[in-house]
Amino acid sequence: PAEEKAQLLQNSEYQERMVESTFLYLTLDLPTAPLYKDEKEQLIIPQVPLFSILAKFNGSTEKEYKTYKENFLKRFQLTRLPPYLIFCIKRFTKNNFFVEKNPTIVNFPITNVDLREYLSEEVQAAHAHT
To answer: What Pfam families does its record include (predicted)?
Structure first.
């Protein structure tokens, strides 16, 4: 809840911190694959647009990370775009027994890929073409 989150942010342990880091590629997480087959006993292969998995970098979407010691939330936002951008789509997940591949198809637009909404507001104002 929002009230509980606001109270926790008052505590020094839960203060937000901003860390800037460089990157060579952006890791994109796919939604989980469906568990069940359709009525024709064939697997349903879902499709997802590139911009929906890029929503991780809009600066407001929070992603929860869990380690054996702690849990924490992260938000990502791009502060500049490199000349070349590589997307690494995370298709493989590891569980206790084996590695599983997510067959989701990513619909990638060939032209007019605009990453303006994933940049910070200051950078959007400075650069007309993204």
So the answer is: UCH
16 within some domain: no
Look up residue 13 and give its two tokens: 């342990």
Residues 120, 74: Cα–Cα separation, whole Å: 16
- Going by C-alpha positions, the residue among 71, 72, 76 that lies closest to residue 120 is 76
- Give the number of domains in the chain: 1
CB 73 within 8 A of CB 64: yes
16 pLDDT band, cuts 50/70/90, is: confident
pTM over 0.70: no
Place of tokens 């007309």: 128
- Report if residue 9 sits inside a domain: no
**Cβ atoms 19, 74 nearer than 8 A:** no
